[in-house]
């Protein structure tokens, strides 16, 4: 496992090419390179496993109300605390590798404006005081990544699915999933063993592989 930490990002990005904003000293941003063992099948649910590792690390540090929003956000009481971006790097003739980028808000400036992001929080607010130092945070997070990735490498995401479901921010809630060409609506029924979102609709349960999930109001008083 190789790790690169940035004190400040000037061209950070999130899913679908979105800009990831960070301010010097206000966040912990790093990328982690993980190489799969020879013969490992294509990874499934890797971004969810990464989110679970980060959630567990935050819980170790005393953060309460940690939730996971499919597929790559870590929330605290419904507000975004961290984001994750996973990119697979196929290497010809060698086992594949993944770069896992993580941005964790530590103490946002009072005048911070984040476009298209309504509810945002930081670690200082989540802890109600000064967050741990960046070295302590990084060591705690990487330790949890090591533990969870050992499990993931041996048994895949199915071994972690239950723990992810326990922190599912939208479990059994009405949601809208906005894709590239259409928006689906239904009830969040969790995730499957491959990490796909399960959406319960009038036509049955549908598997969603990509999209942006948000809560939607109940129009008829039922799910």
In short:
It is an enzyme of class 6 (ligase). The protein has 223 residues and is an alpha+beta fold.
Layout of secondary structure:
Layout: E1 2-6, E2 27-35, H1 46-60, E3 66-69, E4 73-76, E5 79-89, E6 97-105, H2 123-127, H3 134-155, H4 161-166, E7 174-178, E8 183-191, E9 197-201, E10 204-208, E11 212-215
Antiparallel strand pairs: 1-2, 2-6, 3-4, 4-5, 5-6, 7-8, 7-11, 8-9, 9-10
Helix pairs in contact: 1-3
EC number: 6.3.4.15
Keywords: ATP-binding, Biotin, Ligase, Nucleotide-binding
GO cellular component, one term: cytoplasm
Notes on the protein architecture:
The chain has helices spanning 46-60, 123-127, 134-155, 161-166, and strands spanning 2-6, 27-35, 66-69, 73-76, 79-89, 97-105, 174-178, 183-191, 197-201, 204-208, 212-215. With 223 residues, it is of the alpha+beta class. Strands 1-2-6-5-4-3 form a 6-stranded antiparallel beta sheet, with helices on one face. Strands 10-9-8-7-11 form a 5-stranded antiparallel beta sheet, with no helix packed on it. The longest helix has 22 residues, at 134-155. The radius of gyration is 17 Å and the shape is globular. Residues 1-153 form the BPL/LPL catalytic domain.
The CATH topology of the largest domain comes to BirA Bifunctional Protein, domain 2
Main beta-sheet annotation: 6 strands, antiparallel
Superfamily (CATH H level) name of the largest domain: Bira Bifunctional Protein, Domain 2
- The end-to-end distance, rounded to whole angstroms, is 43 Å
How many helices? The count is 4
The CATH architecture of the largest domain comes to 2-Layer Sandwich
- Order of neighbouring strands in the sheet with most strands: 1-2-6-5-4-3
Strands, total number: 11
Q: Radius of gyration in whole Å, from Cα?
A: 17 Å
User: What is the total domain count?
Assistant: 2
Task: Give the amount of beta strand, in percent.
Answer: 25-35%
Shape: globular
């Amino acid at each position: 496992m190789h790790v690169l930490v940035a004190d400040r990002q000037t061209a950070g990005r999130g899913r679908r090419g979105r800009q990831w904003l960070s301010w010097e000293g206000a966040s912990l941003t790093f990328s982690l390179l993980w190489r799969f063992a020879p013969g490992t099948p294509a990874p499934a649910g890797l971004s969810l496993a990464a989110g679970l590792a980060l959630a567990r690390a935050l819980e170790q540090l005393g953060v309460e109300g940690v939730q996971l929003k499919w597929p790559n956000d870590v929330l605290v009481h419904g507000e975004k605390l961290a984001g994750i971006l996973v990119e697979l790097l196929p290497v010809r003739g060698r086992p594949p590798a993944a770069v896992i980028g993580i941005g964790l808000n530590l103490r946002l400036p009072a005048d911070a404006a984040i476009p298209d992001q309504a509810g945002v929080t930081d670690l200082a607010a989540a802890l109600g005081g000064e967050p741990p130092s960046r070295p302590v945070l990084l060591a705690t997070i990487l330790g949890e990544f090591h533990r969870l990735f050992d499990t993931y490498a041996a048994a895949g995401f199915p071994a972690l699915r239950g723990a992810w479901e326990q922190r599912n921010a939208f479990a059994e809630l009405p949601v809208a999933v906005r894709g590239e060409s259409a928006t689906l609506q239904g009830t969040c029924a969790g995730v499957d063993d491959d990490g796909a979102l399960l959406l319960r609709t009038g036509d049955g349960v549908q598997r969603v592989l990509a999209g942006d999930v948000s809560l939607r109001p109940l129009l008829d008083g039922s799910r």
